[in-house]
Design brief:
about 450 residues; alpha+beta; 8-stranded mixed sheet; 13 helices
Length: about 450
């Protein structure tokens, strides 16, 4: 007999839900399209809420719990106000009214009937609603979420431990508890279902509009492409011929630059119009100088002198390229190269040493062929230097720094047919090559420097 009056409001509630579902097929004028899904879900929840409060109104009136019955009247009025503001587009205001009503209502309900009534279960269900709105004040959304959390914790930690104002029998309390849990999950399921329908409808509308726009854009694009194709067919041959000419000129320019600049520096100069200077923390400089060049050059005709030097320097160029060291320049009868640039590496000292040994071997072979052949001194030093391009019309790739000066002093302190290396070079290669220690030797403007003779491979 007790259940029959409570089932009648459920039938009324079901009828109301169907009417609400049909009512929400169209959006009010105050609701923007981007908020349509939020509106439908929140408005459905609010309408279900005031229908539920009507049911609780009759139930509490029947149970003669009049304070809670009158509270249901206030709740219905609050939800009517929330629905009206929601339909006018004031969604966050509507949501604030709804959440404040829910938190206050559940606190009063648990205080009057006790935690076993289960009214507090509605608070977590609705706490997420502010975040379903696509845009809005994040601080307001977070504040509403915190308000729901605070209300729920207040019920769990304080109100639930207070003796209820009304003491009901176990059966009604259990019925309230089960009903509230079922309704809470039911609301979640209904909102999820309606949200899914709203998303589906929104996607249909979006897909239709997208197709219409795509067709218009496609037609416009086809017209544009037809015109452009006609123009391109006329211009393509001209562009192709110009590109061939430009590529040929570019290759010629690159070949010329490669004769005076390292490959990486030449590419940088061609691509950006300039080549930046760079500091190298560790590089190895090689100086080679012919012995007695001045006296021998006085006995030779200029053409013969140039031809003889060219034989040596051409061989040195091949040797430098073979051992990955960069020729910098020739100064009279002196040849300067450096390892470890323009691309820094860890083998620059060994590369320079191998190149020096092969240069010395070549010079010795020339001496066996002709008694008038040149002899050579070689000096090598490792350290910090700066490399870059100087000049605007006649480019020159060069290196600067104390390392260059010390390498020159190593060559001057060497002996004919010898390779003189500094202690810094020896530290890098000494365990791999046979070296003869010369001890510290006084060098002009540098003080004493540890030197070693590098023995030629047998």
């Amino acid at each position: 007999m007790l259940l029959l009056p409570m089932l009648r409001p459920l039938i009324f509630l079901r009828t109301g839900i169907v009417a609400i579902y049909r009512h929400f097929d169209t959006l009010p004028k105050g609701v923007e399209l981007e908020n349509s899904r939020f509106y439908t879900v929140s408005n459905l929840a609010q309408t279900l809420a005031w229908n539920a409060h009507l049911w609780w109104l009759f139930t509490f009136w029947y149970l003669e719990i009049y304070p809670l019955a009158w509270i249901q009247v206030l709740s219905v009025l609050a939800y009517v106000m929330a629905i009206l503001t929601n339909r006018k587009g004031y969604h966050m205001t509507s949501m604030t009214i709804s959440l404040m009503e829910i938190v206050a209502h559940q606190i009063l309900a648990v205080w009057l009937l006790g935690a076993m009534s289960g009214f507090q279960y509605f608070i977590p269900v609705v706490a997420i609603f502010p975040f379903l709105k696509p845009r809005g004040n994040i601080f307001l959304k977070s504040g509403l979420l915190l308000m729901c959390a605070a209300g729920f914790l207040f019920i769990e930690l304080y109100v639930s431990k207070v003796t209820p104002v009304y003491t009901l029998a176990e059966s009604p309390l259990m019925l309230f508890n089960i009903t509230n849990i079922v309704m809470a999950f039911g609301f979640v399921g209904l909102w999820a279902l309606y949200l899914n329908v709203a998303i589906y409808r929104g996607e249909i509308i979006l897909a239709k509009r997208t197709r219409e726009i795509a067709l218009l854009e496609q037609q416009a694009e086809q017209d544009k492409l037809t015109f452009e194709l006609q123009m391109k067919e006329r211009d393509n041959e001209i562009f192709r011929l110009r590109n061939i000419e430009l590529e040929e000129e570019k290759n010629k320019s690159r070949k010329l630059l490669l004769n005076i600049l390292p490959e990486e520096t030449a590419d940088e100069l061609m691509n950006s119009g300039k080549a930046s200077s760079r500091r190298y923390d560790s590089a190895t400089v090689l100086f080679a100088d012919f012995v007695g060049f001045t006296s021998k050059s006085e006995l030779l005709q200029p053409e013969e002198l140039i031809n003889r030097i060219d034989v040596y320097f051409t061989a040195f160029d091949h040797i430098a390229e073979k051992h990955n060291i960069e020729k910098i320049k020739t100064i009279g009868d002196a040849y300067m190269a450096v390892g470890g640039l323009p691309v820094a590496n860890q083998t620059h000292a060994a590369d320079a040493v191998e190149a020096a040994l092969e240069m010395l071997h070549f010079v010795n072979e020339q001496k066996l062929k002709s008694p008038d052949a040149f002899d050579i001194r070689i000096g090598i030093h490792t350290g910090t230097l700066v490399a870059g391009v100087v000049g605007r019309h006649k480019f020159q790739y060069d290196i600067w720094g104390d390392t260059v000066n010390v390498a020159s002093r190593m060559e001057q302190s060497s002996e004919p047919g010898k390779i003189n290396i500094s202690g810094d070079v020896y530290q890098l290669i000494g365990q791999k090559y046979k070296c003869f220690g010369r001890g510290p030797i006084e060098v002009k403007n540098k003080g004493k420097i540890e030197m070693f003779f590098l023995e030629e491979n047998e």
